[in-house]
Amino acid sequence: MDASGDGGSARTPRTRPRTAALLCAAAALAAGAVPASAQHRASAAAAPDPSDPVVVVDCSSQAQVRPREYLLACGDGNNRLVRLRWESWGPGSATATGTDMVNDCRPYCAAGRFHAYPVKVTLSRPEPWPGHPDLRRFTAIRLFYTDTAPYPGGPTDVTYKLVW
């Protein structure tokens, strides 16, 4: 008989081994599951998933998805895309319409005026972002001017490499 006097001494010795066996089995199952899930996370980080969003990197090296504005001229700020409305943003490309605000720099840039040019924007050529193994970034931007180009006689369809 146990200390409680209720006659439970016969039940206690049989329950403890069964409980211990169940706890050991649960611990073994949990231990087997942890390495598999950890291994999955490690492999997912090493190879970016194509369904993950692709980003565009701005002048400050910040990842952006569907930005409303995007600075094209990082050095002097004389060319900026504004009022961007994204029609699509996928793993291979992204398209938007907006306005390209370009400084005419006349007589010099500090005294110049900004002019608005309607533009269709396409981001493309996604590549892994160095130093950010879990992200890919667009590396090309195409500007198609739907009315007039910023420079008289200049092209209405230009593509630039995004280097930042």
Key attributes of the depicted protein:
alpha+beta, eight-stranded mixed β-sheet, 39% strand, globular, disordered N terminus
Please describe the topology of this protein.
Layout: H1 11-46, E1 54-57, E2 63-64, E3 70-71, E4 79-89, E5 94-103, E6 114-129, E7 132-145, E8 157-161
Parallel strand pairs: 1-7
Antiparallel strand pairs: 1-2, 3-4, 4-5, 5-6, 6-7, 7-8
Structure at a glance:
With 164 residues, this protein is of the alpha+beta class. It has one helix at 11-46; strands at residues 54-57, 63-64, 70-71, 79-89, 94-103, 114-129, 132-145, 157-161.
| Strand percentage | 35-45%
Question: What separation lies between the terminal Cα atoms?
Answer: 78 Å
Mean pLDDT rating: 77
H/E topology pattern: HEEEEEEEE
Number of strands: 8
Question: Can you tell me the residue ranges where pLDDT is under 50 for at least 5 consecutive residues?
Answer: 1-50
The profile of the biggest β sheet is: 8 strands, mixed
Classify the helix fraction into a percent range. 10-25%
- Backbone CA Rg: 30 Å
Give the overall shape, derived from the CA principal axes: globular
